[in-house]
Design a protein that fits this description.
343 residues; mainly alpha; Ferritin
């Protein structure tokens, strides 16, 4: 064995870029983040284990099956985009030396969203004509199929518009500011998916929605921790951005969780809304559990009231949401182009 000098002359390596994921460290986190991490492990589930045979054997008309496939295709804008969204966020959290527990929680959110994506994949493959491997990888023949296909094309066009803005926003905004719209969406989704699970008649979707609702509840608790940690020290400019983010988050997620709002934010053709309504009604007729519009409105209003209290406690104005009967600060539609959608 070589003999080491008592006082070795050491060469120090070059400095590492502070935004590199190295050197690895585990910045201290509060207990709530580790509790949520442990809860995620305890609540783990496998989409493959759900009773998919109940969808295969369901007595559905061609239009009802198309409606269900369409509904999950639109949901896929958010749920199928979520894995890369949270994967990118997780990398940025390691670069910025985010708290260890927060990184762990986001790793579980990424895993959950992979499950939610899998639900969309299996549902669209089973219900869209030709059992395609992607929501646009089929050939429409009937008039309703052509309308569905065109709607899905436009929905995915809009999702693609915002990806670059999301990626670039990490150099400009704190995580909690970016994920404000995520918080409100998760609070609303918790109720909406839970109620869809109760209202649906196809066992595989009843069970899937109940599990997704449980995941969303846990995600909302993580997002709430981030906001309470960050909001007390936000500069005024970022507070104003949060107000816009809340408004835009609602409009962005409303396409599938409430109703479409064509305009500058959502670029949609004149045929979109009527076709969307007909296809949603077909999915509801087939037993998917799509809630009546009034119930969707009530779920959003309740979610907004919870988030409203949280942000106003930190001096952040809540935006006007006339669609659900809530007053607040007006946000011009052109201002929504500056936000960062979190899918």
């Amino acid at each position: 064995m070589p003999k080491l000098p008592a006082a070795p002359r050491l060469t120090v390596p070059p400095a590492i870029d502070p935004l590199n994921v190295f050197p690895i460290s585990w910045p201290k986190s509060p207990q709530i983040t580790y509790d949520l991490f442990e809860l995620a492990k305890a609540q783990a589930w496998d989409p493959e284990a759900l009773p998919w045979d109940t969808l295969r054997d369901a007595k559905l008309s061609a239009d009802e099956r198309l409606g269900i496939g369409y509904w999950f295709s639109v949901l896929g804008i958010f749920d199928a985009a979520a894995p890369p969204v949270f994967a990118h966020a997780l990398i940025e959290m390691f670069r910025h030396k985010e708290e260890d527990g927060v990184r762990k929680c986001f790793s579980t959110i990424l895993r959950d969203e992979l499950n939610h994506e899998e639900i969309c994949r299996k549902a669209t493959m089973a219900c869209l004509p030709g059992n395609p491997y992607g929501p646009l990888e089929w050939t429409p023949n009937t008039g309703l199929e052509k309308l569905a296909f065109n709607n899905i094309q436009w929905a995915y066009h809009n999702g693609a518009r915002y990806w670059d803005g999301y990626v670039k926003a990490f150099d400009k905004y704190p995580f909690a500011v970016m994920f404000t719209s995520f918080l409100m969406g998760e609070v609303a989704a918790t109720t909406l998916f839970n109620e869809m699970g109760k209202a649906g008649r196809i066992p595989v979707f009843k069970e899937a929605f109940q599990r997704v609702s449980r995941d969303e509840s846990r995600h909302a608790r993580m997002a709430l921790y981030l906001t309470k940690r960050t909001f007390p020290n936000l500069p005024q400019e970022q507070k104003e951005f949060v107000t816009k983010q809340l408004r835009a988050g609602f409009i962005f997620l409303s396409l599938i969780l409430f109703k479409p709002f064509p305009g500058k934010f959502w670029e949609l053709p004149d045929t979109f809304v009527d076709a969307h309504d007909v296809l949603q009604q077909a999915a509801q007729s087939g037993g998917l559990g799509v809630l009546p519009l009034k119930e969707r409105e009530a779920a959003w209003r309740n979610a907004m009231l919870k988030v409203k209290k949280t942000v106003e406690d930190y001096g952040i104005a809540f935006p006007a949401m006339p669609e659900v009967g809530l007053s607040g600060q007006e946000v011009a539609e052109e201002d929504l182009e500056t936000i960062v959608p979190v899918f």
